[in-house]
Inverse folding.
């Protein structure tokens, strides 16, 4: 088989990153090897995201750019997958006559067949949603990605219908994979030398709730912790309303579960939360945060916040600021609200100008920068166990991730990559820590 090259450009969340890894694995069987240079590619795929505004325009721009490569390499196959493909479907093939493939979020399994057709000049679009029963068997394993830490998809889709979010429309209804399949995949990864697994899904903590035959997410974590060779477990993303006491207890008594949790609040105001259809109030969110901090003192909490949601008053906005002070997020992903066509929130009147939203965003950013730096400084002098994952920021340094998810650079031999080491934190910056080796692995 001739070796051919595949370039994938991935937008959006970790689900898309994981799907791209799956695509690379599937297309390796057809002779495609990944490349990081688009001009060397025989196939270019865009794995798209439509969660934030302007996604379609971004994809259209990229397609126009890649068109010039197609002029130089007439056999080049060009495809679009992911959420924008799901939304736009056949319309993309009509709009871009040089585009060969469009595949939706439920159609990855069809890709090898679509590529074989495209190699013969066929153009094809597949965006039909698949029944949940059939979808259970459509999670081909990922091979050859990072050796140390891997994503393991445990569920997909979402039933929550937050009023601003496009995910339930482009990813479909929520489905939990069989625990037996997940554990098989984790055991296989452990056999390959993987040390950390990140359990992945749009809303992992509702895992298994719709199926009497599957464990709860907390039970699943305990089963994954029982797999020999796996030393660290993380998960993302969680919904506050499904953060059960049973799951929080795992932070107290499952040592392999890292002390880090991503729990998006989205707003600190009850009025806005209700308009967002988030299904919890500020007090309930803070109750979950308190329980997490009690279960694992020092737990690093990260989150997402939307600023400028329709109808957000200055008083609502100030509620978000005070929530941030109370939670003390280690890191926060901040977004200016922009309407996604097709969602309920897109029908709400917007009263804030772009400038007003950006001004509020700046205030949130300033506050979060201060809190993050204070938290980073609290690690000074402490010992941290790191999984060393690669080269450091500066020559002579290597870099690893602490249990909290913090990136720590330290002077060290690249031979340490892949091992666990203990370092003492000697300096704290905005986005990373500096350590020095305290003990060899
Ligand atoms: S929980 Fe809400 S924000 Fe998250 S994916 Fe589901 S609908 Fe979107």
């Amino acid at each position: 088989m001739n070796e051919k090259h595949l370039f994938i450009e991935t937008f959006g969340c970790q689900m898309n990153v994981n799907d791209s890894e799956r695509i690379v694995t599937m297309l390796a069987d057809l002779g495609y090897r990944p490349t990081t240079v688009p001009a060397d590619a025989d196939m270019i795929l865009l794995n798209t995201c439509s969660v934030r505004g302007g996604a379609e325009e971004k994809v259209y721009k990229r397609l126009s750019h890649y068109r010039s490569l197609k002029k130089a390499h007439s056999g080049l196959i060009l495809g679009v997958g992911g959420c924008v493909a799901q939304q736009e479907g056949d319309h993309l093939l009509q709009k871009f006559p040089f585009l060969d493939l469009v595949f939706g979020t439920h159609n990855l399994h069809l890709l090898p067949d679509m590529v074989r057709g495209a190699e013969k000049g066929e153009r094809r679009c597949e965006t039909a949603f698949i029944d949940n029963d059939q979808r259970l068997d459509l999670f081909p394993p990922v091979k050859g990605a990072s050796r140390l830490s891997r994503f393991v998809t445990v569920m997909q889709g979402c039933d929550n219908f937050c009023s601003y979010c496009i995910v339930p429309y482009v990813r479909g209804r929520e489905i939990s994979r069989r625990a037996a399949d997940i554990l098989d995949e984790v055991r296989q990864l452990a056999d390959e030398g993987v040390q950390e697994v990140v359990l992945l899904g749009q809303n992992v903590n509702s895992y298994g709730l719709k199926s009497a035959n599957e464990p709860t997410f907390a039970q699943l974590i305990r089963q994954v912790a029982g797999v020999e060779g796996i030393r660290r477990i993380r998960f993302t993303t969680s919904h506050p309303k499904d953060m059960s006491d049973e799951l929080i207890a795992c932070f107290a008594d499952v040592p392999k579960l890292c002390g880090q949790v991503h729990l998006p609040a989205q707003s600190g105001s009850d009025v806005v939360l209700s308009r967002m259809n988030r299904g919890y109030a500020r007090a309930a969110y803070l109750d979950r945060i308190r329980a997490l901090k009690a279960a694992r003192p020092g737990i690093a909490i990260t989150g997402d916040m939307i600023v400028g949601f329709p109808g957000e008053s200055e008083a609502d906005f100030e509620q978000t600021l005070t929530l941030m002070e109370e939670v003390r997020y280690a890191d926060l992903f901040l977004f200016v609200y922009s309407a996604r066509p097709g969602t309920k929130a897109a029908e709400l009147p917007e009263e804030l100008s772009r400038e007003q939203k950006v001004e509020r965003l700046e205030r949130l950013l300033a506050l979060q920068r201060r809190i993050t730096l204070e938290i980073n400084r609290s690690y000074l002098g402490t010992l941290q166990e790191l999984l060393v994952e690669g080269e450091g920021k500066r020559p002579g340094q290597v870099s690893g991730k602490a249990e909290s998810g913090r990136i720590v650079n330290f002077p060290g031999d690249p031979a340490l990559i892949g091992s666990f080491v203990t370092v003492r934190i000697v300096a704290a910056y905005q986005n990373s820590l500096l350590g020095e080796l305290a003990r060899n692995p």
Remarks:
- The chain is about 35% helix and 25% strand.
- The chain has a mean pLDDT of 93.
- The longest helix spans residues 354-378.
- The two ends are 43 Å apart (CA to CA).
